[in-house]
Amino acid sequence: MKLYSDFGPRRTRQIAADLFALLAISGWVWLGITVYQLVENLAAFGVQMEQAGSGFKKTMTDVGDALGGVPLIGGGIRVPFDQASDAGAALEAAGQSQQVAVNQLATGLGIGIAVVPILTILLFWLVPRIRFMRKAGSAKALVESGAGIDLLALRALASQRISALRAVDPDAMAAWRRGDETVMRALAQLELKASGVRLRE
To answer: 170 and 103: one domain?
Structure first.
């Protein structure tokens, strides 16, 4: 696998693009985490509701238990305190629900803000980089094989612009057919340069 081009200008552009993409990804991750934390802070109100409801419920239950022990009238006195305890339980449950809702909102916003831009960056940066690495690795393997120059020259004839082929030889195909070493090497260099690989002397 070949990460970067052998040619300076293209290699510089690739390194700069890699650094920019990594910084952009890091930035979007940071922003997603920050938004998550900011929204999650809203759950503090739900925590307070839950604690207030829990405390109120416990107090009313304790008072109801204490008054419920009074002979003859304890049962009747206890009823309003039990109802108040139920109201405290409802407030506690509402606080818990609010915390769950805020957590879901914070998670959704945090992920949504980070994931969409990161996927876009990966699409426009990582996919071309992987394509380059595969093409460069294939070209390098051809160079290192015995028949590499012939195959690279043939690939150049099939994929390079006609103007670039004519710059090598006015009839590059005929030169390739007759096995002209100079033309085949020039064609191979043309294909290798497009793949980011330098032909070693």
So the answer is: no
